[in-house]
Structure formats: structure tokens, C-alpha cells
Amino acid sequence: MLITCICAVSHFSAAKTPESGKATPESGKATPEPGKATSEPGKPTPKPGKQKEFISVQRLVPRLYNGPDWTKEDKAAEQLHFVQFMEKAKSGQLILAGRTKEPGDKTFGIAIFRAADEAAAREFMESDPAVVAKIMTAELHPFNVHIQRKAP
After folding, report:
1. Residues 6+ apart with CB under 8 A from 29
2. Do residues 34 and 151 touch, judged by C-beta distance below 8 A?
3. 3-state helix vs strand vs coil in the chain, percent to 5
4. Please, what are the domains in the chain?
5. Using one digit for the tens of pLDDT, what is the confidence trace for 51-89?
6. 72, 85, 130: which is closest to 112 by C-alpha?
7. Strand 52-60 relative to strand 109-115: parallel, antiparallel, unpaired?
8. How many other CB atoms are there within 10 angstroms of residue 95's CB atom?
9. Whole-angstrom Cα distance, residue 94 to residue 114?
10. Distance (Å, whole) CA 92 – CA 123
11. Cβ–Cβ < 8 Å for 74, 60
């Protein structure tokens, strides 16, 4: 049975964030307090180091619904897809990934992950080897995990 997943990642910033309300030496301007409006009206300043959550929905391309239609290149891209997922899960960037157990066009995979912003989330999703090889399509959605079971 073919297992498909979703890929995602976040990028952590190593930059030191100055204290809220304190002037930075470079600009001489005070940094905004978390939750306060920024230069973009209606958008609060995220807390330093706070990652946003996203969900990626991936679907196999129709030519691959039938197992025997997979080429050697398709299988290699799928393997790289799983390797990337495993690395991101180990690093903590990938919260979870899985797929439905339905055949053909009904099956899809999801990944819930953290990223610094939508651009970083989209960059990683689009760099997934399965998406690059065009064996899967991917769709990105902002997401919030509200309840999560603790690991046993």
C-alpha cells in the first residue's frame, strides 16, 4: 500500500530580539510591545520566537492512483519526501502527519507544522520532494492547534 504524507517545516530565527519598549542601538527606536499594532494595521506583533501553525493538504496526482503506474523516479521522490518528514518530526517542526485510508481521488494527506510565517511555510511545502517531482499537489492553510493529547 502506498502511503502519502505532507511535508512542512518552520525556520527558527537565531536573531536576538530586543526587549519590548526599549530602543535598539541600530535604530534608536523602541520596539513595539507584543500584541500591539505594528506598521501593518490590524496585525499584532508576534511574540519573539513564537512560531505560527499551518496545515498542508497534499494529494497524489491522478496518474498515480494505480500502484503499478509508479515509475522509479516517482518512488525515489516519495522516499525523499518521507526522509524530509522524519527529519522535521525529529527536530520538532512537524507536529503530525498522516493520510486518509481511502482509494484514488478520495485519499489525501495532511501535515500540521510550525513556521515563522506564511512565506516560510509555503517555501518548505513547495520544496517537498514529492511536490517538486509533481507526484503530489499541496495546499497551505493557516491553522491553530487548540487541543493536543500529551504523549504517553
Report:
1. 23
2. no
3. 30, 20, 50
4. 1-9+23-146 (3.30.70.1060)
5. 999 999 999 999 999 889 999 999 999 999 999 999 999
6. 85
7. antiparallel
8. 18
9. 7
10. 18
11. no
- The alpha carbons of the chain give a radius of gyration, in whole angstroms, of 19
| Residue 104 Rama label (left phi>0; alpha psi -120 to 50; beta) | left
Which residues does 137 contact at the CB level (< 8 Å), separation at least 6? 58, 59, 61, 131
For 139, other C-beta atoms within 10 Å of its C-beta total: 13
Match 513547495 to its residue by C-alpha cell.
Answer: 126
Contact 56, 8 (CB under 8 A): yes
Angle 132-137-142 (CA atoms, 0-180°, nearest 5)? 105
pTM of the model: 0.66
Beta bridge partners of 98: 110
Q: What's the length of the chain?
A: 152
